[in-house]
Every structure is written in C-alpha cells, then in structure tokens.
C-alpha cells in the first residue's frame, strides 16, 4: 500500500476535475461527501463523464496497475498485533468497528 502511494505509480490523472472529485469524496462530514445521495451522484461527476460503466459492470476493463502475482501485499505486523492483543481488547475493538461513526 505504502509503495503504491509513494512509488511511481499514478492512478489519478492530475486535473481540476480529478482534484474536485477527490476533495468531494474526502469531506470530513459524511453528509457533505460526494455520493451521499447514491452512486449516480458519483457516476455523473464531470471527472467520470467519459467512463464506460457498462464495461466495468461486465468486467471488460483491465486494471491500470500491474501488480505481480508473486508480490505479497499482506502486512504480517497486523497479525502480530492481533495475536498479542488480549480477549478484552479484541472485543472492545470489535464493538467499536460495529458501531456507527459520528462526526461533529
């Protein structure tokens, strides 16, 4: 994951429309985010105006990322953290993940 962000892979074309799309998706308050009114809000954003949704739906689009099948994207440190966590901590984290998030 980190390598994809800081490496030479570029997934987003640098345009005003792309920046607008990303900024609207990353709004702090969920009610202000692009897509809060459904997926069509995202699909009709100007940055995606020429995107072929039917090709995506039929799995006819190949990923622009070329990730080697031999490459391991699993971070083993996460497993170690979970193994070292006691039962009470695990239950507390599970409850936190199940609940709704609220932002003020």
Describe the structure.
The chain is mainly α and 104 residues long. It has six helices and no strands. The chain is extended.
Q: What is the residue-mean pLDDT, rounded to a whole number?
A: 75
- Helix share of residues? 40-55%
Distance between the termini: 30 Å
| Proportion in β-strands | under 5%
Oligomer: single chain
DSSP summary: helix tally: 6
**Which structural class do the helices and strands define?**
mainly alpha
Total beta-strand segments: 0
| Helix-strand pattern | HHHHHH
* Outline type: extended
Low-pLDDT sequence parts: 1-10
Characterize the biggest β-sheet: none
Descriptive terms for the model:
0% strand; 6 helices; mainly alpha; single chain; 104 residues
Can I get a quick summary?
About 45% of the residues lie in helices and about 0% in strands. The chain is mainly α and about 100 residues long.
Show the helix and strand layout.
Elements: H1 2-6, H2 16-25, H3 39-43, H4 53-57, H5 76-84, H6 87-98
């Amino acid at each position: 994951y980190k390598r994809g962000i800081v490496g030479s892979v570029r997934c987003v074309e640098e345009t005003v429309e792309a920046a607008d799309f990303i900024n609207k998706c990353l709004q702090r308050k969920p009610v202000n985010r692009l897509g809060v009114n459904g997926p069509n809000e995202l699909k009709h954003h100007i940055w995606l105006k020429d995107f072929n949704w039917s090709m995506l739906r039929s799995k006819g689009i190949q990923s622009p990322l070329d990730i080697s099948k031999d490459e391991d994207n699993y971070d083993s440190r996460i497993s170690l953290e979970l193994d070292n966590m006691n039962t009470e901590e695990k239950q507390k984290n599970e409850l936190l993940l199940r609940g709704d998030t609220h932002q003020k």
